[in-house]
Automatic annotation (TrEMBL):
<dbReference type="InterPro" id="IPR050664">
    <property type="entry name" value="Octanoyltrans_LipM/LipL"/>
</dbReference>
<dbReference type="InterPro" id="IPR045864">
    <property type="entry name" value="aa-tRNA-synth_II/BPL/LPL"/>
</dbReference>
<keyword id="KW-0808">Transferase</keyword>
<dbReference type="InterPro" id="IPR024898">
    <property type="entry name" value="LipM"/>
</dbReference>
<comment type="similarity">
    <text>Belongs to the octanoyltransferase LipM family.</text>
</comment>
<protein>
    <recommendedName>
        <fullName>Octanoyltransferase LipM</fullName>
        <ecNumber>2.3.1.181</ecNumber>
    </recommendedName>
</protein>
<dbReference type="InterPro" id="IPR004143">
    <property type="entry name" value="BPL_LPL_catalytic"/>
</dbReference>
<feature type="active site" description="Acyl-thioester intermediate">
    <location>
        <position position="150"/>
    </location>
</feature>
<comment type="pathway">
    <text>Protein modification; protein lipoylation via endogenous pathway; protein N(6)-(lipoyl)lysine from octanoyl-[acyl-carrier-protein].</text>
</comment>
<keyword id="KW-0436">Ligase</keyword>
<comment type="subunit">
    <text>Monomer.</text>
</comment>
<dbReference type="GO" id="GO:0016979">
    <property type="term" value="F:lipoate-protein ligase activity"/>
</dbReference>
<feature type="domain" description="BPL/LPL catalytic">
    <location>
        <begin position="33"/>
        <end position="248"/>
    </location>
</feature>
<dbReference type="Pfam" id="PF21948">
    <property type="entry name" value="LplA-B_cat"/>
</dbReference>
<comment type="function">
    <text>Catalyzes the transfer of endogenously produced octanoic acid from octanoyl-acyl-carrier-protein onto the lipoyl domain of GcvH, an intermediate carrier during protein lipoylation.</text>
</comment>
<keyword id="KW-0012">Acyltransferase</keyword>
<feature type="site" description="Lowers pKa of active site Cys">
    <location>
        <position position="165"/>
    </location>
</feature>
């Protein structure tokens, strides 16, 4: 049987607003039947803090620190918590809810889509597996996250190596289409990450940062031979093809499509109304 063909885009490093606008545009175009399902890889220029759709900037985010570090800032169209996009591979998956064998529930569709990331880790020789919260306390912490930091706790079917989270993902569903995007950590500057959020006091911050070390880890902290971004792209591209049983075909945006994304980036994702609205 022939494998289904999906489009593959490697956008390279783009501005925070362009990255989010392109994910949204791909969702719209796929909903309209103009493009196939898509796997996209991208990076961030400058390095950026992205926050979840429901996060409250004034309450949770230290904007002065973002400025001090020269970081970009953008609100995602997906939920979840704050992510520092710096030394990582970011991916997005755009596929219709009605795709063959795609589970209806968000949790189960995460598992299916994330098979691609799982296989990517295996290709890097890493023993990754899916986190499934067992205890009531773990399940409760998913409903009521204590921290604004995304990598602070694994969610259902998030990817874990040696008990610590190595990839964080978020999903939205609009117009009959699933958009799942997430970050795969190659390296992590914990001090910088923790400076970007607000805490009741220094003691709480220190306690959370200390606990964080037991919950999240970057690939190059646990792999004997460091992985370059190019090696990661190759491993995870093959991982997605294998995990989703698809063939990936390079997909080029037309001039008109790029222009549309640029307009959406400036009108929406660069606007204070969008980024600071909650």
């Amino acid at each position: 049987m022939e494998k289904k063909q999906w489009g593959f885009i490697d956008s390279g490093n783009c501005s925070p607003s362009f990255n989010m606008a392109l994910d949204e545009a791909l969702l719209d175009w796929h909903s309209d039947g103009k493009i196939p399902p898509i796997i996209r890889f991208y990076g961030w220029n400058p390095p950026t803090l992205s926050i979840g759709y429901f996060q409250k900037v004034e309450k949770e985010i230290n904007l002065a620190a973002i400025k001090e570090h020269g970081l970009g800032f953008v609100r995602r169209p997906t939920g979840g918590r704050g992510v520092l996009h710096e030394h990582e591979l970011t991916y997005s998956v755009i596929v219709s809810e009605g795709y063959p064998n795609m589970p209806k529930s968000v949790t189960e569709s995460y598992r299916v889509i994330s098979q691609g990331i799982l296989k990517g880790f295996h290709r890097l020789g890493m023993e990754a597996y899916f986190a499934v919260p067992h205890s009531e306390e773990e399940k409760d912490s998913l409903k009521n996250p204590r921290s604004s930091v995304c990598f602070d706790a694994p969610s259902w079917y998030e990817l874990v190596v040696e008990g610590r989270k190595v990839a964080g993902s978020a999903q939205t569903r609009q117009k009959g289409v699933i958009l799942q995007h997430g970050s795969i950590l190659l390296d992590l500057d914990e001090d910088k990450l923790f400076s970007l959020f607000r805490y009741p006091n220094e003691r709480v911050k220190e306690r959370m940062q200390k606990a964080f070390k037991n919950k999240a880890v970057a690939i190059n902290d646990i792999r004997q031979k460091p992985v370059s971004i190019e090696e990661a792209k190759q491993a995870f591209k093959q991982g997605f093809a294998e995990g989703l049983d698809i063939e990936l075909i390079p997909f080029e945006l037309s001039k008109e499509q790029v222009q549309y994304v640029e307009e959406l980036a400036s009108s929406k994702y660069e606007s204070d109304e969008w980024n600071f609205k909650r």
